[in-house]
C-alpha cells in the first residue's frame, strides 16, 4: 500500500508522530521506544513516551545528547497552533524523574532545549538565551548542533548564545564610515540586542554604501556576536559577483587584513554549501532550488 495512503489512515496525532520520527532520523537522531533505551546507540537519542515525575505526564520525546538528557519534544497534530502548547513542553522540561535528573543537563532546574513539533512546523526554546522563548525553526535541530550549543554555553557562561553576545558588542570603529552607514550598523546591532523583532530592515539610498555597510555588520557579528554563518541574498548573478569582490576587498578595522583572509566567503552553487563557509552569497532562486 502507498505510504501516503497508509499515513492518511492514521489518527492526526499518530500521523504527526510518524512525520516527526522521520524528521528526527533525517537529522541524525536514533529514535527509540522507552523499553529499548540504549544511550550508546548514537550521539543523539530520542526516546518516545518517556514517563516524567509524578504530576508531569509523559513527554512525547525525551532527547539525549552524549548520554545526557538535554531536551523534550511535545508532538501535536498538523495544524495545531504550537504557541498554545508551550506550557505542556515546559512542564515536561521541569518534571524530570530522579533517575533521569542524575544524568541530565539542566539550566535553572529545567532541560535547556524545549521543542514543539507538528510534522510541518517546529518551535524551539533555547534555555541558554537571555530571555528564552519559543521561536520557529526551519527543521529539527541535529544532535551535533545541540552539543555545540552546550559547549558554547559552558565555555562562556556569561554570554552563552549569540543573543547574549550581541548585547555586548564592542564599540563600532567609525573610521571611514559615512553617517548613514554608522546609523545603519548601530541600528542593526541595537535591534538584535533588544530582540523585540525577528527581522530588521535597513533602507539606504543608491550609492550610500549598502554593501560595505552589510560587510562591516557581518564582520562584527562573526567576530564578536557569536554568528557562525551569514547568508547574503542578491537578486541577480552579477550582483553576487560584485558582492564577492566587495568582501574580498574589505579591510578589517582592527588589524587591516582582508575579510577573506579570516573568513571563507563563497557563492552558493548547485553542489550546496561547504561546512567551512562563513558567508554564503546566493540569488534567491538558488536558495529555493
From TrEMBL:
SUPFAM superfamilies: P-loop containing nucleoside triphosphate hydrolases. One of its GO terms (molecular function) is hydrolase activity. Gene3D superfamilies: 3.90.1570.30, P-loop containing nucleotide triphosphate hydrolases. The keyword Ligase does not apply. One of its GO terms (cellular component) is cytosol. Keywords: ATP-binding, Helicase, Hydrolase, Nucleotide-binding. Residues 177-288 form the Helicase/UvrB N-terminal domain. InterPro entries: Helicase/UvrB_N (IPR006935), Helicase_Restrict-Modif_Enz (IPR050742), P-loop_NTPase (IPR027417). It comes from the Bacteria. Transmembrane segments: none annotated. The keyword Disulfide bond does not apply. This is DEAD/DEAH box helicase family protein. It comes from Blastococcus saxobsidens. The lineage of its organism: Bacteria, Bacillati, Actinomycetota, Actinomycetes, Geodermatophilales.
Amino acid at each position: 500500500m502507498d505510504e501516503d495512503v497508509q499515513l492518511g489512515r492514521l489518527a492526526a496525532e499518530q500521523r504527526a508522530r510518524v512525520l516527526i520520527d522521520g524528521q528526527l532520523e533525517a537529522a541524525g537522531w536514533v529514535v527509540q521506544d522507552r523499553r529499548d533505551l540504549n544511550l550508546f546507540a548514537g550521539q543523539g537519542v530520542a526516546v518516545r513516551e518517556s514517563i516524567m515525575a509524578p504530576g508531569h505526564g509523559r513527554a512525547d520525546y525525551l532527547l539525549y545528547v552524549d548520554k545526557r538528557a538535554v531536551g523534550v519534544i511535545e508532538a501535536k497534530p498538523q495544524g495545531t497552533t504550537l504557541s498554545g502548547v508551550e506550557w505542556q513542553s515546559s512542564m515536561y522540561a521541569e518534571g524530570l524523574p530522579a533517575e533521569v535528573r542524575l544524568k541530565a543537563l539542566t539550566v535553572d532546574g529545567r532541560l535547556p532545549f524545549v521543542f514543539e513539533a507538528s510534522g510541518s512546523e517546529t518551535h524551539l526554546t533555547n534555555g541558554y538565551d537571555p530571555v528564552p522563548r519559543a521561536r520557529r525553526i526551519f527543521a529539527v535541530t541535529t544532535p551535533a548542533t545541540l552539543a555545540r550549543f552546550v559547549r558554547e554555553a559552558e565555555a562562556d557562561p556569561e554570554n552563552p548564545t549569540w543573543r547574549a553576545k550581541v548585547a555586548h558588542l564592542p564599540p563600532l570603529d567609525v573610521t571611514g564610515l559615512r553617517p548613514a552607514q554608522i546609523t545603519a550598523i548601530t541600528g542593526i546591532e541595537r535591534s538584535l540586542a533588544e530582540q523585540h523583532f525577528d527581522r530588521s530592515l535597513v533602507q539606504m539610498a543608491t550609492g550610500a554604501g549598502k554593501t560595505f555597510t552589510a560587510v562591516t555588520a557581518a564582520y562584527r557579528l562573526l567576530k564578536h556576536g557569536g554568528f557562525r554563518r551569514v547568508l547574503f541574498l542578491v537578486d541577480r548573478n552579477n550582483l553576487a559577483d560584485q558582492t564577492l569582490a566587495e568582501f574580498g576587498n574589505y579591510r578589517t578595522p582592527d588589524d587591516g587584513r582582508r575579510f577573506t583572509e579570516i573568513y571563507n566567503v563563497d557563492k552558493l552553487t548547485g553542489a550546496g554549501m561547504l561546512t567551512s563557509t562563513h558567508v554564503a552569497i546566493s540569488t534567491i532562486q538558488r536558495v529555493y532550488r
